[in-house]
Amino acid sequence: MNPSEWFTEQVPAAGTAFSLKIKQKLHEEQSEFQFLEIYETETFGNLMVIDGCTMVSTRDNFFYHEMMTHPVLYTHPNPKRVWIIGGGDCGALKEVLKHDSIEQAIQIDIDERVTRLSEIYFPELCEANNDPRAELKFIDGIKWVKDAAPNSVDIIIVDSTDPIGPAEGLFSAQFYRDCFNCLSEDGMVVQQSESALLHLKLLGEMRDAMSSAGFSHLQTLFFPQCLYPSGWWSATIASKSALANFREQDANNKPFETVFYNADIHKAAFAQPEFVKKAFGL
Ligand code: SAM
Fold first, then answer.
1. CB-based contact 106:85 (threshold 8 Å)
2. How far is residue 47's CA from residue 23's CA, in Å, rounded to a whole number?
3. How far, in Å, from the CA of 2 to the mean position of ligand 1?
4. Closest ligand 1 atom number to CA of residue 61
5. How many CB atoms within 10 Å of residue 164?
6. 86: Cβ below 6 Å to ligand 1?
7. Nearest residue CA, atom 20 of ligand 1?
8. Is the CB of 142 under 6 A from ligand 1?
9. Could you identify the atom of ligand 1 that is nearest to the CA of residue 87?
10. Is the pTM of this model over 0.70?
11. Which residue has a Cα nearest atom 18 of ligand 1?
12. In the prediction, which pLDDT does 241 show?
């Protein structure tokens, strides 16, 4: 095997690696915030890598983008205003705007270059960028949330890079407190929460930080994502009010197409594995 034909993301702490065979490197640049690379792969379409970590591929991004958005949107009783913190590839924004109830969706990514490269290399993810309900801001999401007025938003989707560099503060109790303060009464945050297999400690710390910020109900959901370490990813919803009311009928009658998400997947994703229950006393 010629290593130069493969992109490999190593996770030394876990002793694992994931590789994709590449056709060519399409782009690389050091932005103000991070090192961005785009590859054309043999079988996964285009691949975006930030600081050496796989972010998005053409072929499998639907798992992540659908599961970061539709479960929380069909759990909230009446979502109208959504913020996406990070999410510069615009895939989450596209899924959010499939919901007719949404009146405003603001994407706040610190790095404009991620979005500009997505427009070129992942145009299908950017299809909703010109929707009149969409607004793109290129500023620090931590500051945006800190400065926001109470009752400004119904759902905050934290679609960030891993908790290092500019994203580190997005995993802190202070950030969740700021989210709590600007959410409406039934408000919810959903955040990508890494792999329960590889990062259980981090997941536990996130959940503790969310609880300490005042969120009374937490729910971690699970989904496949072969591009990310271990191939099994999670998102955690922190809600100000009870999380019981899945709008199952609405999900069953959703007026738009998805590749992965449906009402059965929704219910299955909320099932808690035994080792997770044990770790978090559920
Ligand atoms: N799906 C990806 C994953 O889990 O690996 C995340 C994709 S998305 C491209 C991550 C985005 O988070 C990047 O575009 C990065 O610029 C953004 N980001 C990191 N820190 C941020 C911050 N403090 N405020 C706003 N956006 C941030």
1. no
2. 11
3. 31
4. 1
5. 10
6. yes
7. 167
8. yes
9. 8
10. yes
11. 86
12. 85
Over range 152-179, report the average pLDDT: 93
To the query of whether residue 159 is one of the catalytic residues in this protein, the response is: yes
- Does domain 61-280 fall under CATH 3.40.50.150? My reply is yes
pLDDT above 60 for 1? no
What pLDDT is recorded for position 166? 87
Closest atom of ligand 1 to CA, residue 56: 1
Between strands 153-159 and 81-86, the pairing is: parallel
What is the rounded average pLDDT of the residues 139-153? Answer: 97
Give residue-wise pLDDT tens across range 41-75.
Answer: 999 999 999 999 999 999 999 999 999 999 999 99
CATH of domain 6-57: 2.30.140.10
For residue 145 and ligand 1, the question of a CB distance below 6 A is answered with no
**Which residue's alpha carbon is at the smallest distance from atom 1 of ligand 1?**
55
What distances in angstroms separate CA 250 from CA 76, 80, 156, 257, one per listed residue?
12, 15, 21, 13
At residue 2, does pLDDT exceed 70?
no
CATH 2.30.140.10 in the chain is located at 6-57
Q: What percentage of the chain has pLDDT greater than the value 90?
A: 93
178 lines ligand 1 (CB under 6 A): no
Q: Where in the chain is the domain with CATH 3.40.50.150?
A: 61-280
